[in-house]
Amino acid sequence: MTEKPTILIANDDGYRAKGLRKLTDLMRTIGKVIVVTTEKVNSAQGHSITMTEPLRYHLHEKGEDYEMYVCNGRPVDCVKLGYQVIMDKNPDIVVSGINHGSNASTNLIYSGTMAAAVEACMDKIPAVGFSLDSYSPDAYFDHLDGYIIDIVKNVLERGLPDRVCLNVNFPKYDPENPIKGVRICHQADGRWIEVFDRRNDPSGKEYFWLTGYFEEKDLSEDGDQYALKNNYVSIVPTSYDWTAYFAIDTIKKWNL
Amino acid sequence: MTEKPTILIANDDGYRAKGLRKLTDLMRTIGKVIVVTTEKVNSAQGHSITMTEPLRYHLHEKGEDYEMYVCNGRPVDCVKLGYQVIMDKNPDIVVSGINHGSNASTNLIYSGTMAAAVEACMDKIPAVGFSLDSYSPDAYFDHLDGYIIDIVKNVLERGLPDRVCLNVNFPKYDPENPIKGVRICHQADGRWIEVFDRRNDPSGKEYFWLTGYFEEKDLSEDGDQYALKNNYVSIVPTSYDWTAYFAIDTIKKWNL
């Protein structure tokens, strides 16, 4: 590539997030960067989009080959606005994150970070979502620099298969247990066991906070949960084709 | 099954929707029915959940072997609340819809209707999302009765493969062109071409409405778009495992 690549960044933790700042700093070392991020934290917004309220955005900050816009919508709105309104052509790559919290296993299903990448993928733009296995707002990210640059450069040079984006998850920083390498994985099975925290408001009316914990169901060596737990970076090639091809013949036999 | 099956119904068009009423009436002919639906229309909310606001619900109406609850959350919240708080055990099946609007092809990705089914599927409850290829609030649904009953009875009797739920889409009613039958399909490729409708508010500030049109990219005979366009019911076995298995070897060769 002779010219610097154009890189569109989105996330779901909002414009103040440390993970977004880290990803922006890294991407500015290799390309022209446009960030379109959200005013508010948009965790667990999945692939939602904003259709019943008007969208607004404004230029939040600017530097050499760099602009950051803040939008009142969700992560998917940000990506769409980015390459369809703010930029005059599609970026060479969309990167999303770095999310504060793992999007490995079925966490992916709820993830705004990955929804932003999937949206770009549907528009045939190479896309990668990055997430760190730590919810701390002040999480340490510096151990990821080389991995992120490497992955983005590979995608820019090689492209990605049709309908495929990457879901990249990093172990959190542990000085006594450094990252061992990278594994290309499948999405492990798992689920959130919800706990509805039942309370009463000052007028006595019942309400619930949704909370819970994650139950791992697949720690096989090829899965992303195994990789993360064993201090590897996990990369899952991820598709927006959700067809369960293996089940088609079974259902065909039903004589519907 | 000696006892009547318990059926949990969700949707994303809210408690007033005609499609929900139709599905409820149909399910009451074969089982004990709990409906947990939303106050507001929740189209295009994808797999979003409510974590930063408290959830509330109330009993909206009641009949023989039938209760309808209305909740302030999204479709996925409704399903979770349904079998974890409102019901004392998991239902025999979760059905979602009937959505006013197609969820075939990549419409699935944005769909609250299908997110409700996918959520149940992650919890190993058989689940089916039903959608009609018409956005009209007053759409005609009576041509679907036999198909819906048939599909639900089959799922109740046979179960579904692990990690698989069904995405069922119906052609809209056309008296001169009746439904020809059922096809088991793959999810066709396609995408929304967004049009951001740029306007100015009374104080002159710019805002955007997200709108657009759907571009079909795959009308192959095995795809769900082909089935719908040719007046077949399309059933896509749908998985929450989004791994692009075919791409794993390619990415492994990158030497990351």
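qc> The longest strand of chain A covers residues 190-200.
qc> done
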